[in-house]
Amino acid sequence: MNDVAAILPAAPARATPVMAQYLDIKAAHPGSLLFYRMGDFYELFFDDAVAAAGILGIALTRRGKHLGEDIPMCGVPVHAADGYLQKLIRHGQRVAVCEQLEDAAESRKRGAKAVLRRDVVRLVTPGTLTEESLLDSGAHNYLAAFARVKGANEYALAWADISSGDLAVMETTPLRLSADLARLAPREILVADSILAEPDLARALDECGAAITPLPPGRFDSTAGERRVADHFGVKALDGFGAFTRAEIAGLGGLLDYILLTQAGQVPHLRPPRRENAQSGLLIDAATRANLELSRTLAGDKRGSLHSVIDLTVTAGGARLLGERLANPLAVCDEIEDRLDSVAFFVDAPTLRDSLRKLLKAFPDIERALGRVSVGRGGPRDLASIRDGLTSAQSLAAALAGDAGLAALPAEIGLARQALAAIPSALHRALIDTLGDDLPLSARDGGFARPGFSAELDEARRLRDDTRQVIASLQGKYTEATGIKSLKVRHNNILGYYIEVSAQNAPALQQAREIYFHRQTVANAMRFSSAELGLLEQRISAAGDKALALELGIFDQLTASVIAERDTLSRIAAAVSVIDVSSALAELAMRRRYVRPMVDGSTAFDIRAGRHPVVEAMLEQRADSPFIANDCNLSEGDKRLWLVTGPNMAGKSTFLRQNALIVILAQMGSFVPARSAHVGVVDRLFSRVGAADDLARGRSTFMVEMVETAAILNQATPRSFVILDEIGRGTATFDGLSIAWASVEHLHETNRSRALFATHYHELTALAARLRHLGNVTIKVREWRGDVVFLHEVVAGAADRSYGIQVAKLAGLPAPVTSRAAEVLKLLEQSDQSAARLALVDDLPLFSAARPASLTHTAHSAVEQKLAAIDPDELTPRDALALVYELKAGLPKTS
């Protein structure tokens, strides 16, 4: 296959003009597939065509030759390009979109063989999407940049969503990088290529699952970055935005440089950079997020996740904000209380809440509409979204004002209402007066300006759309003036418009030469024209172009007005999202019987009648038995570490997870599923549950378990909350028990975290006698006629058995298997385990369904009986030696 880089040097001499242009543009974008505009198609050539055809499942054809070889080619229609772009982006490709920048008439002015001017107007990458069809309306599409100042040992993450204008930065460290990336879930990460040579950092970046874009280290120069960011926001210094570290400035600079590069000169709307404090949020690592199924289940589905259950938002911006808050719960009490105040306000005002939610349903996604308009990819429908959004904002502001005014509103909602009240009235009126009701997708399709808005545009449209009527009117005028009833105004492609009369009537027009002039004589007829008809013809032929040009001018004016007010529009969109999230969480609280948690700076953890939000919702959906609520009190001074025992299927994992989810809900600013809840702010949340391997990195299930456990024991603090499930079960019994034993001791003595530790190692319950803050709880069950009944109640105490065989029966294991298992279990419980296992090896008839009626102990030998009767302390050395000879003589003879 031809390689563009290899053939480029020969291109000017041997390529056709079009192909030479293609090769020049392609050489400037070597890492991207080039969508080269050819009329109504984007065409791809050479290796790009081969790659794209394979991914898109479209035909790979040939077009002409280059250097003696066929040129592979494929293409996609311009009108359907978004769907193909989406597929390419999902396969990790980058696409350079090359457009025609002039029409054929303009190119011919430069010569008959001149090639249309073309150039790349944007680079489409996973983190720089703006098209509505390519984005998930309910989730951010983050582009992140990881930067490091090596000498200062500083690290930072900057991120932006150019579709909505969000821009932020924070300090990070190599240890927390993976957790920070898991929180953001960026689609693309920018990083200096030198960093990818460092295994630990490269692994953390790779584990995120985002597309990695390596850049030269110079793109992350902090000095150049500071200048670049200041120039973009029109300020002399960045101090007004925050006290940024050098690494943070380097990250922001590299991020902004890449955004401007991919948008080919178009400047997207970005809000001023927001500096986040790394300590202000609840840190949750990637494994914990996956185990708790916050945004997706372990199977990868959104349905069944915590987000799917709590999301009652009705706007796209609100859905994104809810996802952002769920991904990044707070760790600052005052900020949490502000959010809880907003939810409580709407809980206490059901009538207002209902009316606001009805108004919110009509609020369009003006954030992303503004994003598209800012980079020149907006259309009339985006302007209409902004128009309708401003109308809705007025209604929302009026509904929130009420009789009490702003004083009655909580702080967060009061600020939102102020933003809604400050709509740009002139822009709103212009959009209402200008835009029609039935709008095209693209401004170039025309027809979006309201009739009556512009007299000049209306006239151009009339000429374009009512040509026959205009001609008929002119024909009537000439008929009346000449008295020739057979006079016709006709048209052909050679003469254009002309007046035709019979030869007998021609003298009447010939005599009025100041009005009519001869054009052509044909059999039995003569054709004339007039200055008025010629002018009309020019007007008609130009009417369509003029109408479109006038509309495009109107569109440009509206777009400029929108961009001038983009900061105000952005604040309005953010305010609507806050109101949507707060009212949605209030609606959730009322529907699901959630309560306001007490969140403070203590290390308390006291949940009364707590419930698992997802399991409870699923049970209600299936009209199944109600969820059994349980208390969990890990408050300081009591038992901050609980050892949870009980059989499989009894609900240990559910109990562990529900308390972790209550922490997340409380600290994101939501009410929680409980009768009451007191949560001392948690700094880090850790979860080690479930079994999974990582074969791609050579990790067994047990190795993954140990890696996650190591992270907890090395990083958890007294302010952390930890849930661990079945530590040590992936290896040999005594190894696993030893690891679990030592882990419990370390959590109690060193980490001192609030923790729930579920286990089947009942031996661990003995630790409660000597570990002051360790408490034993178990899940209640009952046996009924050999079967186990799960009560799902957590009570003080320890389980005396695991009921594994009863659970195996419920799972459908064959009766001979469970019967045999019961017999083996009885033997193990009544004898020394190592001896019993040796006896079982000899006694088990493998691959046979037949089982002996019972197992008996092996008879003791004479030697064993003799030893059992001896007290070693009473033997003299001489007696001991004699005993050895006696015992040896009693051993069975061996051949």
Description:
- This protein has 895 residues and is of the alpha/beta class.
- Helix content is 45%, strand content 18%.
- It is built from 33 helices and 27 strands.
- The strands form five sheets. Strands 13-23-24-25-21-26-27 form a seven-stranded mixed sheet, with helices on both faces. A six-stranded mixed sheet has the order 3-4-2-1-5-6, sandwiched between helices.
- Helix 14 (333-347) packs across helix 24 (566-592) and helix 15 (350-360) packs across helix 24.
- The radius of gyration is 39 Å and the shape is elongated.
- The relative contact order is 0.06.
- Mean pLDDT is 86; it is low at 1-13 and 833-857.
Which keywords apply here?
alpha/beta, 895 residues, elongated
Q: In oligomeric terms, what are we looking at? A: single chain
Shape field: elongated
* Average pLDDT reading: 86
List the total number of helices: 33
The profile of the biggest β sheet is: 7 strands, mixed
Number of strands: 27
**How do the strands line up in the largest sheet?**
13-23-24-25-21-26-27
Q: In percent terms, what proportion of residues is strand?
A: 15-25%
The Cα radius of gyration reads 39 Å
Distance between the termini: 75 Å
**Uncertain parts:** 1-13, 833-857
Helix fraction, binned, reads 40-55%
- Backbone structural class: alpha/beta
